[in-house]
Known about the structure:
CATH topology of the largest domain in chain B: Heat Shock Protein 90
Number of strands of chain A: 11
Structural class of chain B: alpha+beta
Strand order of the largest sheet of chain A: 2-1-3-10-4-11
CATH class of the largest domain in chain B: Alpha Beta
Distance between the termini of chain A: 68 Å
Oligomer: heterodimer
Shape of chain B: rod-shaped
Radius of gyration of chain B: 65 Å
Largest sheet of chain B: 6 strands, mixed
Order of helices and strands of chain B: HHEEEEHHHEHEEHEEEHHEE
Number of domains of chain B: 3
Order of helices and strands of chain A: HEHEHEHEEEHEHEHHEEHHEH
Strand content of chain A: 15-25%
Number of helices of chain B: 9
Distance between the termini of chain B: 94 Å
Amino acid sequence: MKKWSCAVLYFGISVVLLAGGAPTAYPAESYTFGVVPQYDQRQLYAIWQPILGELQRRTGISFKLAGMPTIPAFEKELLKGGYDFAYMNPYHLLKPVKSGSYIPLVRDGVNLRGILVVRKESAIKSPSELDGKTVAFPSPNALGASMMMRADFAREFKVTVTPLYVKTHDSVYLHVVKGLADAGGGVEKTLEEQEKPIRDALRVLYVSRDLPPHPVAVHPKVSRSDAEKVRRAFLEMADDKAGQGLLARIPMKKPVSTSMNDYLRIKKFDLEAFWVEE
Amino acid sequence: MSLRVKVFLPLLLAIVLLAAYIYALWIPRVLADAESAYRNSVGRHLESVAEGLVPLMLGKQLDAVYGNLDALLEKNADWVGVRLFDQKKRLLYPLGASGPANREDRPGVRTVTQEVRYLDEKLAAMELTVDFTPRLNEIRERSKALVYTLLAVLLLILFANGLILDFMVSKPIRLLADASQRLATGDFDMSLPKPGGDEVGILVKSFAGMRDAVRSHTQRLSEANEQLVREIADRKQAEEALRRAQEDLIRQEKLSILGQMSGSVGHELRNPLGVMSNAVYFLKAVHADADETTKEYLGIIGTEIANSQRIITDLLDFARTSPPRRVTVTAGELVRQSLKRCSIPENVTVEVAAEVPEELSMLNVDPLQMGQVLTNFISNGMQAMPNGGSLHLATRLVSGNEPGNGKREAESGVVSVPERKGFIEISVTDTGEGISPENRKKLFQPLFSTKPKGIGLGLVVCKNLAEANGGRIEVESEPGKGTTFAVLLPVEDGAR
């Protein structure tokens, strides 16, 4: 009887030790991948789902695209550390996150520059002529398209514009084209992504200072090895044509490895006054 | 107009009218209903689209609006275009000002409008141009396919009914018509269609009944006709027999009168002739030295007296045949005695031959009567050969049934003679001119003669004499070759 009792006890202890002693693997199934909604959700899905599939093929890690319909919703989720990986606004990296700041892994080699567009036939020749006019922005906290532009409006051109936040860069350009706004703030990359009729209907009125572009960042809770796998995968995708095609749609024509040092200079722009809590 | 045309022409006309109705009224109505339903459907769809655009319009997500409308245009092939206006009627969508509005002039393109409202505020107005043509064409084609199928099925049914009508009605009627024609010609053995339970079957049964009745009546009429023909023939035969009997009776009466008159006249003339014959004989004896002319005339008178006496003898023999005085005699004796009594004319060259076997059986006949018969045969044969010839006499034994050599015509059958009894045939054959078939039938009729000086009683007397002795006479003659007269006499009973 004692022998049987001892055997059961040893077996139970073994099970408990094995269960408790096993290393904690995060995540057990897949990582969430958030994408700042610069475009329509359909477009985002069409761009990023193939990329995540390619990443999974290359790293063996499973990813789940976590879409958010609006930038504010995305930012809220980001501030909560809700994404394991995220493609985000550069300024998002500078925002404190309670669960730990995101760590940039890769970015496009070409810097981001904010632009101010007007209709091609518009009589406006300078941002200074936009005083009192309606200017469309994706969202208040879009770094290049909104915060930098509003900062320059206020500090460089001393004009006051009426902001019209239209959620996405595409919407900004459409508002300008359709005359719903006198001008619109965007970035060079998203303007290049527009269809030709839209690009042809717009004229770049002003280009802001350059900024490091949107990074793919990882939350600190993700293991370093997985983070490195993802970084390498992005970099290696640029080595073949199929990968280049996928990355070009982000757009990220030439991915390079990056770190927080690349983005710290944004703090020198002193844009905090133009950050809007939503 | 055939039965098939009469039956199917109205049906065909009905099908044509049905097709015209479908084309002229039914299909346009179906298309109008389909267009109305489709317009309602598009309207409901547009309402849902407008509902979906509300948050996008409120959030000023023009790109999302574009995305949605682009996607809708891509998915709905029949959507020609969508235009979206804001509250100030500024065109928000599509990007260019030109667009689908110009296409409304096309037939089948319709415009449906829908406001985008939230609470009581009008956010935008949508104007959707839809091409109804594909949908209407589809319905039109389906309707046409339905109509064609319906018409094809109806025509197929019509064709099948035509075949059935032809098989069940026209063909039996044609057969009945053919049968009627054959029936009219008296042919009752025609094949009729197998009768069914329908009206045609009743007609076929009725026709078959009529055919059987006509056949029965015709058969009865035919039998009655045959009976009538037989009766007519019997009546004609009876009339003929009656006529013959009357003729025979008349002839017998005439012959009886003739016989009586001949006997009386012959008896009365025989004595004067005898006297005249004696007188001629006396004169010849007394005037033996008379001149030649006198002698010649006396010879002529003697000859004519002899002819007259022979005629009178024939008349007497004809009038009264004496009962035969039978004696046993041979055929050869009869032949030889007859040849002695006959003399061959001086100016005629006739070769006479006799073939008389002595071993033949004896006859029991009257030798004078049979001699008279044979003498008559020989005399006739001599007279039939005025330019000469041969006369052949022969005897032979024949059976009772044997008709000579098979070519002769028997003039009398002897009923009293048993058929198995044998006969001795005594024949006289000349090589004269022969007797024509017409004359041969009349040879034994009284008063028929082909000779200029005959009175037509010789062969009649011969016939009577042969029959009186239990025999019969047979004649065989071939014109141009000669004639055979034969008398068949029964063999004496004890001699056999």
